[in-house]
Design brief:
141 residues; 4 helices; mainly alpha; elongated
């Protein structure tokens, strides 16, 4: 019996892409004029990179076989992405509030755009990873 790729494979890839997009937007945001003084949180970077590595590992394992570790990976991925999102919100929420209220200028709003994109991509990655936890990478053909 052969195995065919299922939608879980593509959704897992989408999870990795969204997490990488969130990470890229966060790193871009950390280099903008307004947010550069806050620096880059290594915890956020480690959580998002760790989640991407686990997604790639899950795809690789899922295409070969399905051991017990395969069933634990979706939980770890979702937890890492959720912790990364919460840490991202933690390091940016006060600055977002300041920009939206007191320091509202065109330059600050332009710098804030990448922050909002990072938060949105990470939130979507969390949602997609939870959906992906209920799917397999392959199906029997």
């Amino acid at each position: 019996m052969t195995q065919k790729k299922s939608s879980g494979l593509y959704i897992a890839a989408l999870t990795a892409v969204l997490a990488l997009a969130g990470l890229a937007a966060y790193l871009i945001n950390s280099g903008t004029n307004y947010y550069a003084k806050m620096g880059v949180s290594t915890a956020v970077v480690l959580c998002l990179v760790g989640a991407v590595v686990l997604v790639v590992l899950r795809i690789a394992i899922g295409l070969k076989s399905t051991p017990v570790v395969y069933d634990l990976l979706p939980i770890c991925i979702s937890v890492l992405l959720t912790v990364g999102l919460m840490l991202l919100l933690n390091v940016r929420i006060n600055n977002l509030a300041a920009v939206f209220t007191f320091e509202n200028s065109a330059a600050n709003m332009a710098d804030t755009t990448s922050c909002i994109v990072a938060i949105a991509c990470c939130a979507l990655a969390v949602i997609v990873s939870i959906i992906n936890a209920f799917q397999d990478m392959t199906k029997k053909a």
